[in-house]
Structure formats: structure tokens, C-alpha cells
Amino acid sequence: MGQYEQPRGFVHGDRPGTATIRCPVCRDTAQDVTPASSAGKSIKCMSCGEFDISVTAWATEKLNRIDFAGRSFALRRARVRAKGARPMILSLDC
Length: 94
Known about the structure:
Layout: E1 10-12, E2 20-22, E3 29-32, E4 41-45, E5 49-53, H1 55-59, H2 68-82, E6 88-89
Parallel strand pairs: 5-6
Antiparallel strand pairs: 1-2, 2-3, 3-4, 4-5
């Protein structure tokens, strides 16, 4: 990535927890609510709700390489596995 290139999905904001991004699942506007101590991502989306993405799934950009149906399925799998807790999309979901 070049010096001035923005990461994929980036809209604006310069610190974790304050950035408005594109939701990695539905591509609508969302909030990056990742704590500074986290290696993965925490997302808050009006359409998809609140969920986390594991560091491996985020770093490898696996979600960006699959279509909308695949991303939606990954979030559904994470919700089932979470059993009511905050879902986390893992690289195996993608």
C-alpha cells in the first residue's frame, strides 16, 4: 500500500473507535468501534448490527474477496456460533 493510499473500506477518521468505514459485510456506512488494544476489528452497522472480525480474517482480507452472499453467510455463521453474544467472523467463516 502506498504512503497516501487509504485501506480498503476506509471512509474517514484517523483513530480506532472514531472512523466511519464501509461495513465489511453489506458495504453500507458503519462505525469502527475497535478498542485500541484489539488486533481484530469491531464494527457497528445499522444494517448488520454489531460484530467483530478476527485479526486473521481482517489481515488476510478474506471478507473482501467473497461476494455479498458469502459475506452475509459468514456473519450468519458467526451469529449462530455466538449464541446471543457478540458474533465474531473468523477466517474459517469466509
